[in-house]
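Renewal narrative, Specific Aim 1. Our central claim is that a sequence can be written position by position from structural information alone. The example that follows is taken directly from our test logs and has not been curated for this report. It begins with the structure tokens describing the chain, in the order in which they were read.
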């Protein structure tokens, strides 16, 4: 009876350790996947920002030589759409959201001034503190 109890207890501890190892492995794999996703979103963001800067520079260089009218606007819209699709051909909606989130968070951190915690007073308020050492000496 005691041997059976000891064996079952050891088996339970072994099973628990095995489950814990599997959980750690899964959590590592999941963390690597999440980090890879955010790195790819940051890479997409930098390529999009670079392409926007290049398009802006190209449009500034062309200046007044651009055609005008409805057909020209449609053609320009189609060209920008094709350029956007060539930069990121098969991005998922989730990755698009992540890129928008990163854009927003970078804009918010650039524009918002971080608030500081109030300064700690030089002399703490000690009205409620009793002098224990004085009471113990008596």
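The sequence written for that structure reads:
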């Amino acid at each position: 009876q005691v041997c059976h109890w000891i064996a079952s207890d050891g088996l339970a501890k072994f099973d628990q350790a095995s489950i814990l190892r599997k959980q750690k492995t899964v959590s590592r794999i999941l963390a690597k996947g999440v980090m890879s996703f955010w790195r790819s979103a940051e890479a997409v963001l930098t390529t999009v920002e670079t392409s926007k800067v290049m398009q802006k520079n190209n449009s500034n260089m062309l200046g007044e030589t651009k055609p005008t009218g409805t057909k020209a606007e449609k053609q320009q819209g189609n060209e920008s759409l094709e350029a956007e699709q060539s930069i990121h051909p098969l991005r998922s909606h989730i990755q698009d959201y992540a890129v928008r989130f990163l854009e927003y968070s970078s804009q918010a951190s650039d524009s918002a001034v971080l608030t500081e915690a109030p300064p700690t007073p030089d002399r703490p308020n000690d009205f409620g503190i009793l002098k224990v050492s004085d009471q113990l000496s008596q």
